[in-house]
Specification:
Helix content is 70%, strand content 0%. The protein is an all-alpha fold.
């Protein structure tokens, strides 16, 4: 029985292989919804390479999970930025950013779970997530600056809002059988009660 091995990348193409490995890890983590269930050997099989080739790019599973989560986070931030850019005012921009996050979590529940509940997160942290925090603070501050929300400490309000939204999304993923109201209704209540928006 012969192994179905891929042909080696041309010289200088190592970065392409790294991206393929991360892509495979992202796909597998979305299915597994658990970073501890991911193995580098399984990822190597998915990409049709030897396990040793994975180690050339990632020293261990945690490093690969972090790279996969960083890519997912960048995708999530980019989608939120695009949605906010189309909004007519800061209040709509903040709302659209959060609804985009909710839609992404609904499409990728396994990845969202790993992004917020992974063992890697607890062991190493995910400093790249500070970008999303900063975006939320800026969006809340813009609402306050334009009089669409009452003046307050934007950082505190943004953290309260993120806590509510992330909790809502995590519970929907972990307890899908509860009689959940539409996500948009919950988001609007958070924006009204926590930020003070009149939607």
């Amino acid at each position: 029985m012969t192994e179905n091995r891929r042909r080696p990348n041309a010289r200088g193409q190592g970065e392409l292989l790294r991206e393929e490995i991360v892509t495979a890890a992202v796909r597998m983590l979305d299915e597994l919804a658990d970073d501890e269930a991911l193995s580098l050997r399984a990822v190597a099989r998915e990409v049709s390479i030897a396990a040793t080739s994975v180690y050339l790019h990632f020293p261990d599973r945690d490093a690969l999970v972090l790279a996969a989560m960083q890519r997912c986070h960048e995708e999530l931030v980019g989608a939120g930025d695009a949605a906010a850019a189309e909004a007519p005012d800061p209040a709509a921009a903040l709302r659209d950013r959060i609804l985009t996050q909710a839609a992404w979590a609904r499409e990728h529940p396994g990845l969202y779970k790993v992004l917020h509940e992974s063992k890697v997160h607890r062991r190493l942290g995910m400093p790249f997530k500070e970008v999303m925090v900063a975006r939320t603070i800026d969006a809340v501050q813009a609402c306050m600056d334009t009089g669409l929300a009452p003046a307050d400490d934007a950082a505190t309000v943004a953290i309260d809002l993120r806590t509510a939204v992330n909790g809502m999304l995590a519970q929907r993923i972990n307890e899908p059988d509860l009689p959940w109201p539409p996500a948009v209704e919950q988001v609007d209540r958070f924006l009204a009660k926590l930020v003070g928006l009149r939607l």
